[in-house]
Specification:
This protein has 347 residues and is an alpha/beta fold. 29% of the residues lie in helices and 19% in strands. It has an eight-stranded mixed sheet. Helix 6 links the parallel strand 11 and strand 12. It starts with a helix and ends with a helix. The structure holds aspartic acid (ASP).
Length: 347
């Protein structure tokens, strides 16, 4: 080839590179069930429907608009109400997310999930995903068959956040109802309304306006890449049970936990994590049996601080369900009480 033709070919290659359409982000949607995949007999039925009835491809097909934002693939991890979610499934989910995000061709993951335990699974992934690529959970309060179902817009906005480079490094997120919540703090606060997910003290990471994420805050607590927890080779999670504190709460709940070989107990204390004489005796008995006990609060917000006059470790600002997730995760690698207390203060 002559020099001039070589030059022309090189110029052509350069121009086509410069004008090639930018590659869309590749987002994988992992579906686990819930109301977002729920189906009812009529479009006005919003209770008593079947959660986890629709498959992942149907969820994606219902929102063709996602194709203008990202290249999406779907995978079905489970198809259940999140009230039936188990530690085996969240472990499988964490491993799958880790494997996907380790690939160069995957830019982020969206997970559809029932709302009932949507404060637990995201926090487990916040502790155990080894990547700063976006991991975004979403769900719905109205089944897919309802008038004004919230699922399709929630899925579109979740993909929008997962595809946004600015979403990297913020920890695992929950996108619902135009808001971006942090897995560490967000929780379901109302049994039925659409705006149920809130973090009473900490608020939101940001909002979605006109199809664009606006981030406003960052989480101080340790998550994802900086987390010491690694469950990629863990086959099952330790058994941690929750015992609720109330007037007349009986000591025999602790005997049951000991008899069933629990590894840990979250005690949902009154007020700032206080104990009755019976729960105090039960906690001491459980600790003597080698069970790690952590006191949380039943108030719904605030910090349970260390108190030398009371038995048990303390949950800091984690709600009881999230405290259980952290204790299960911590017990996969240590039984050192001081170290576990340190995790509760920093994660
Ligand atoms: N029971 C459902 C679930 O958690 C509720 C929902 O998704 O809103 O799967």
């Amino acid at each position: 080839m002559k020099f001039t033709s070589l030059l022309a070919a090189a110029l052509l290659a350069l121009t086509s590179c410069a004008f090639a359409a930018p590659q869309q982000p590749h987002i994988v949607i992992l579906a686990t069930g819930g109301t977002i995949a729920g189906s009812a007999a009529s479009n006005t039925q919003t209770i008593g429907y079947k959660a986890g009835a629709i498959g992942v491809q149907a969820l994606i097909d219902a929102v063709p608009e996602v194709k203008s934002i990202a290249r999406v693939d779907g995978e079905q991890i489970a198809n259940i109400g999140s009230n039936d979610m188990t530690s085996d499934i969240i472990l499988t989910l964490s491993k799958r997310v880790n494997a996907l995000l380790a690939r160069d061709d995957v830019d982020g993951v969206v997970i559809t999930h029932g709302t009932d335990t949507l404060d637990e699974t995201p926090y487990f992934l916040n502790l155990t995903v080894k990547s700063d690529k976006p991991v975004v959970f979403t769900g719905a309060m109205r089944p897919a068959t309802a008038i004004s179902a919230d699922g399709p817009m929630n899925l579109l906005e979740a993909v929008t956040v997962a595809a946004d480079p600015n979403a990297r490094g913020r920890g695992v997120m929950l996108v619902m109802n135009d808001r971006i919540g942090a897995a560490r703090f967000i929780t379901k606060t109302n049994a039925t309304t659409l705006d149920t997910f809130k973090a009473p003290e900490q608020g939101y990471l940001g909002v979605i306006v006109g199809g664009k994420p606006h981030f406003e805050t960052r989480v101080e607590k340790i998550h994802t890449l900086r987390s010491v927890f690694d469950v990629r080779d863990v086959n099952s999670l330790p058994k941690v049970v929750i015992i609720y504190g109330y007037q007349d709460d009986p000591e025999y709940m602790y005997d049951a936990a000991i008899a069933h070989h629990a590894d840990g107990i979250i005690y949902v204390g009154t007020g700032g994590g206080s104990t009755s004489v019976r729960s105090e005796a039960g906690i001491k008995k459980a600790e003597q049996a080698g069970i790690v006990v952590v006191r949380a609060s039943r108030t719904g917000s605030g910090v349970v601080a260390p108190d030398d006059n009371m038995p048990g470790l303390v949950a800091d600002s984690l709600n009881p369900a999230k405290a259980r997730i952290l204790l299960m995760t911590a017990l996969t690698q240590t039984h050192d009480r001081a170290l576990i207390q340190d995790y509760f203060q920093n994660y």
